[in-house]
Every structure is written in C-alpha cells, then in structure tokens.
Design goal:
Layout (H helix, E strand, L loop, with lengths): L2 E6 L11 E3 L10 E3 L16 H12 L2 E3 L3 E3 L7 H5 E3 L4 E13 L3 H10 L19 E10 L8 E9 L2 E16 L16
Parallel strand pairs: 1-8
Antiparallel strand pairs: 2-6, 3-4, 5-7, 7-10, 8-9, 9-10
Length: 199
Amino acid sequence: MPRLRSVFVLSVSAVLLAGCATVADDGAAAPEPSLSTSPSPSATATPTKVDVAAVAKADSWLEGAVLPSGAVPSESTPASTYPFSYSYYAWPCSPMETRTAYWTIAGADVIDTANWLKEHPTAGLNDPVPIPITVDDETEYDTVTLGNVPEPESLEGIAYTVNRTANGVAVRAEIGVFREDSVCPEPPDGGRWGGPGQG
C-alpha cells in the first residue's frame, strides 16, 4: 500500500523560518498553459488607506495566474482538500495586500501538476527552486507547495499548494504584495524568512 507524503519545496541554502503555518480550529496536467478565467479571490480586510499600486499588482498576479489546461476556478475551498483548511503561508511582513484563489483539475496528478506549475510561472514571476520534483514510483504524494516570486529570496509573490482530491487535484494560490507601509521584521537567530511556497 503506498504511503502518503507531503512535499514542501525548500531552498537548500539556509534554514527557512517562515512559510506554512497552522491554525487549530479553523491524472496528469495538460502540456499547454492557459490563463484561468474568473478565479474568486478572498482579500484580507480592507486597510484604512488603500495602496493603489499594491492593489493593482495583487490583482494582476491573480488575473495572470497560469494553470494547466482543464483547471476550473472554484468559488470557495474545494471539497476533499483537508490541508487547505489548516495550512497556509504566513507572510512574515505586514501589512500585505493579499488574495487567495482555488482551482480544481479533474484527473490530474499532484506531482505532474506541481512540475507543470514550476515550468510555467505566472507572467513576470519566477520559481525560486526551478528543479523538477522527482519521486519514487511507490510513494503517493498528497500535497506539494511551490512559489512564484519576482526575484530570488523575495518575501512577496504567490504560494501555490497542489493537493490531491478524490478525482484529481485542487490548486490554491495565496498572493501577497508589499504595501507602501509594509515592514519586514528581522528573523530570529540570524536566519532568514522563507519565501512564498518555501516552508
């Protein structure tokens, strides 16, 4: 019987201090990219002062998110995606302009979808760890995280999570953009913060 595993794509250069956080209570992808249509974002609470540039950038990253052919936008957290309900990327800087969107892909595989996303980053962004994910044939992976960032070691960008479902995969995009008043605290013990999708 295959074992279930989660893959978190990490930078190998240093120990990462930020990334996935938890809260207590609360087949294969097609080879050609296609822009998703009308994903339903859920933005954070409206700040007292609107940062027009940050809003525009967050919206452009959301609208420009590239998903494999067959990806269908979901109005809310897709069913059978248990990790989505308790695991998320904790942005180390604040305040951030954020968006969250979900898609489902029937018949898709977690690793194939994650590698497709690594090969087709959202326009203007890059995968900070572009090495393809390789696995053995006897292990079934249920979750993979990866990131798209504007530059290496950036603390803004997109954290993608690919999760296995009963009939394929679900993909979540967590988007975070710096605002004019964003502050990034110093990481403890001389470490560094992990970027989107890297922890």
